[in-house]
């Protein structure tokens, strides 16, 4: 029996005797009942996902206009491209900004918190931590290269890059030589979200070990607000008092946070 489909179709012999069956409308029939997939709605080879073109356009904007032309979520997309090659990552990038607030805060977030965001694979978290480590290494290299510290803005940039987005308080000391050259940058203590134990005599002991003649104290406020507390000022004055007996100068105590920084010397608190 001849089917309806058979009556509505015509068979031609193409080059080399190959048979080609056409419907009356002139469209080629699907091959041997091959099922059509969502990515191949017309039964052809399929087109690349729309985000493939988006990725190249985003890379072109970065090359031609610079990072300043991109929004925070777009910079995150560029990083996510490396870890997630076959998916539209724009929704994930926007979810990260909504969760953490900014590009810098997303990059510096704790791995456990990043992993809580749906779509963040172990590879994507690793890419974020690589970028964070690179930024810290770059900032530290710039400070070392340009010290003696003629530019406090570079010191501030380094301190903020290193610890402004930490989730707990960290106290560090920059040890300097007679020409204000950086001898060492060391974390002296870490604590909770609002307190770090600091021991002035331990700071002095380390300064003497390094033959430092001056120091800069630095710590962060995880709350984001760098305004010094009464305890911050008291602790700084205690360190200055001990340092004075040893002939050691305390140039400043800098507090950093997401919202900026504060200099106790600049505020005339020391």
Question: Could you explain the architecture of this structure?
Answer:
There is one protein chain. The protein is of the alpha+beta class. 43% of the residues lie in helices and 17% in strands. It contains ten helices and seven strands. It has helices at 4-7, 50-65, 72-83, 90-100, 103-108, 111-115, 122-146, 152-163, 200-209, 230-245, and strands at residues 9-13, 19-23, 170-176, 182-190, 214-220, 249-257, 260-263. Helix 3 packs across helix 4. The longest helix has 25 residues, at 122-146. The chain is elongated.
Short description:
By secondary structure, the chain is of the alpha+beta class.
Descriptive labels:
10 helices; 17% strand; disordered N terminus; 7 strands; alpha+beta; 43% helix; 5-stranded mixed beta sheet; two-stranded antiparallel ribbon; 270 residues
Low-pLDDT parts are 1-12, 19-44
Q: Mean pLDDT, as a whole number?
A: 80
Instruction: Report how far apart the termini are.
Output: 102 Å
What's the alpha carbon Rg, rounded to whole Å?
31 Å
Number of helices: 10
Q: What is the H/E string?
A: HEEHHHHHHHEEHEHEE
Specify the helix fraction band.
40-55%
Described by strand count, sense and barrel closure, the largest sheet is:
5 strands, mixed
Computed structural class:
alpha+beta
β-sheet strand percentage: 15-25%
The geometry reads as elongated
Q: What's the total number of strands?
A: 7
> Assembly type of the shown chains?
single chain
**Major sheet: order of its strands?**
4-3-5-6-7
């Amino acid at each position: 029996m001849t089917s309806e489909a058979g009556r509505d179709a015509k068979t031609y012999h193409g080059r080399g005797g190959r048979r080609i069956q056409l419907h009356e409308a002139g469209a080629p029939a699907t091959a041997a009942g091959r099922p059509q997939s969502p990515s191949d709605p017309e039964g052809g080879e399929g087109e690349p996902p729309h985000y493939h073109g988006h990725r190249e356009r985003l890379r072109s904007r970065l090359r031609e206009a610079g990072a300043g032309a991109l929004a925070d979520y777009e910079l995150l997309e560029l990083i996510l491209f490396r870890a997630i090659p076959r998916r539209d990552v724009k929704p994930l990038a926007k979810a990260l900004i909504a969760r953490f607030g900014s590009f810098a805060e997303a990059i510096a977030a704790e791995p456990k918190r990043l992993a809580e965001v749906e779509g963040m694979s172990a590879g994507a978290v690793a890419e974020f931590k690589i970028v964070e480590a690179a930024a810290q290494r770059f900032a530290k290299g710039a400070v070392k290269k340009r010290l003696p510290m003629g530019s406090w803005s570079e010191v501030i940039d380094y301190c903020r890059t290193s610890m402004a987005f930490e989730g707990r308080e960290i106290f560090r000391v920059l040890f300097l030589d007679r020409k204000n050259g950086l001898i060492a940058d060391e974390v002296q203590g870490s604590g909770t979200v609002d307190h770090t134990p600091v021991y002035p005599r331990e700071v002095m002991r380390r300064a003497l070990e390094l033959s430092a003649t001056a120091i800069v104290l630095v710590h962060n406020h995880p709350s984001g607000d760098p305004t010094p507390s009464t305890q911050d000022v008291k602790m700084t004055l205690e360190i200055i008092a001990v340092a004075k007996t040893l002939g050691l100068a305390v140039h400043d105590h800098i507090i950093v946070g997401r919202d900026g920084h504060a200099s106790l010397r600049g505020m005339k608190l020391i």
